[in-house]
Amino acid sequence: QGQEKLSCNPKKENGTHVVLCELGNPMKAGARITVDMELSVSGLEDMGDAITFHLQLRSKNSPSHGSVTVTVPVEAEAEMELRGNSLPATMVLPTSWHGAPGSRRLEDHGIRVEHVYELHNKGPGTVSGVTLSLAVPHLLGEHVLLYLLELGTEGGANCSRHPALNPAQV
User: What are the TM regions of this chain, as residue ranges (predicted)?
Assistant: First the structure.
């Protein structure tokens, strides 16, 4: 009729985590009980896409036991945020400006513009295997719009080399 808190005891059996809950002692014949359980499980990063619970109902007075298997999907939740900045923020090239073909000096290929991108995990979960693809327009027709000089990372990230990166080896 009312609600009662269960007394549950966690323990390990044969390498498996077990939680034993006492539902009633003694329990009247024909009694019906509904149990809501809230479990907090940590370390699910490497569990795959589901976790399985095996529930058993045992009675000391009856040889019959009931069991059920419950599979709960595991979904990681993490919010990613991408921030970007260009230094200088704006740049205007004169219409008559032309690069010096064959030169190996940076200033003969244009004004240096640095693009910085920061990828942040705002949580709550951890992430791995994240791929960030940046499309940088380096040509406008047959003319060089941006001369891509170098690509660098910090914080253990890996980058794939762009085929148009520093083609004149400046």
Answer: none
